[in-house]
Structures are given as C-alpha cells and as structure tokens.
Amino acid sequence: MLRREKxxxxxxxxxxxxxxxxxxxxxxxxxxxLARRYVELAKKIAMRYRIRISKDQKRNFCKKCLYxxxxxRVRVRVRKSRVMITCLNCGFIRRIPIRPxxxxxxxxxxxxxxx
Length: 115
Ligand SMILES: [Zn+2]
What we know:
This protein has helices spanning 6-27, 32-48, 55-58, 103-114, and strands at 74-79, 82-87, 93-97.
C-alpha cells in the first residue's frame, strides 16, 4: 500500500489556502458571493489538513459569515487598547487588542530607522 505523504499534502494545502485567499481579495469588489466562497473553501481546506490560517490572512475576512472585509461593508473603531471591526453583513464585532511594542521590538525598529 502506498504511504500517504502527509507533509507534502499539508504543504500543498497551505499553498492552496493562500491562493484562494488571494483570489478572494481580488474578487471581493466584482463578485462578493464568489469571494466568500473562496474564503469558505480556504477554511475547509485548513480544517481538513489542520493548518492555521495566519494572523494576517485571518484579518481579511469575517470569521462569522466568512465574507471578506470590504471598506463599504465594515466599520472600524479604535478604542483605548483595541481595534473593533464591525461586519455589516452579519453584525459580528471583532476586537483586536493592540499591545504596546515590546522594548526588544522597539530597539529593532530604532535600528532600522537609523539605517
Ligand atoms: Zn460577518
């Protein structure tokens, strides 16, 4: 019996997820429903192969209704220590905490700025 190459499968799945999410981003103003479908597929692949969708990618769509965030379909508010994104499709409010930059990180930023 042929052994499944799970590592390879997951690698391919990862590629497909990023392709689907990129397509969703491109299509969101042309065909919103199709863009949502791309996100849905990406999420399904991620679950099937137990892959995390990266933080940056996650912030491009509503996790409740899976519609990609579009400037005319969301409202963004900034509170003291968090950004609140309200999805106007389903009303889901996502809160993203903002943490102050750690000293090690700010050092790096200063170094980059000096250059
Ligand atoms: Zn939503």
